[in-house]
Amino acid sequence: MSIADNKKAFHDYFIEEQFEAGIVLQGWEVKAIRAGRVQLKEAYVIVKGAEIYLFGAHIGALPTASTHIHPDSVRTRKLLLHAEEIKKLIGKVERSGYTMVPLNLHFLNGRIKCQIGLAKGKKQHDKRETEKERDWQREQQKIMKQHRR
């Protein structure tokens, strides 16, 4: 079940591969995510050393958060992947000019997972072409529905 999607990622990038990662979260963050108070629009994935982090994801604290915790809504969160996946991602990012973007947050067996996309940036004309293709498909579906009636 999807919690939050990053629709802008598919608009701005060609997604080559996708990986599923766990996230290191604090208790108040899990409660806020379950309440739907998360946004991935400005988020991206960075490499520090031999680890991968989610940077810029906004998780809004609930008003019922504990008084002894001072929530930081845009803190950097560590992503959990297998060592081979991390090596592969680091190699692609450093050598091949790829970037990593979060695609969505979802539940898997009661745990919160982050779908990461290995992506190449789109040029402006590519974005326009994608938009045209989407409009064309939408028009074709309308025509098909009218013919069925």
Automatic annotation (TrEMBL):
SUPFAM superfamilies per the UniProt record, alphabetical: Small protein B (SmpB)
Composition bias type Basic and acidic residues, residue spans: 126-142
Molecular-function GO terms, alphabetical: RNA binding
InterPro entries the record matches: SmpB, SsrA-bd_prot, SsrA-bd_prot_CS
Gene Ontology biological process terms in this record: trans-translation; trans-translation-dependent protein tagging
Subcellular location, record wording: Cytoplasm
Region (Disordered): 119-149
Cell membrane as UniProt keyword: no
NCBIfam families named in the record: PRK05422.1 (NF003843), smpB (TIGR00086)
Function field: Required for rescue of stalled ribosomes mediated by trans-translation. Binds to transfer-messenger RNA (tmRNA), required for stable association of tmRNA with ribosomes. tmRNA and SmpB together mimic tRNA shape, replacing the anticodon stem-loop with SmpB. tmRNA is encoded by the ssrA gene; the 2 termini fold to resemble tRNA(Ala) and it encodes a 'tag peptide', a short internal open reading frame. During trans-translation Ala-aminoacylated tmRNA acts like a tRNA, entering the A-site of stalled ribosomes, displacing the stalled mRNA.
Name of the molecule in the record: SsrA-binding protein
Species of provenance: Undibacterium nitidum
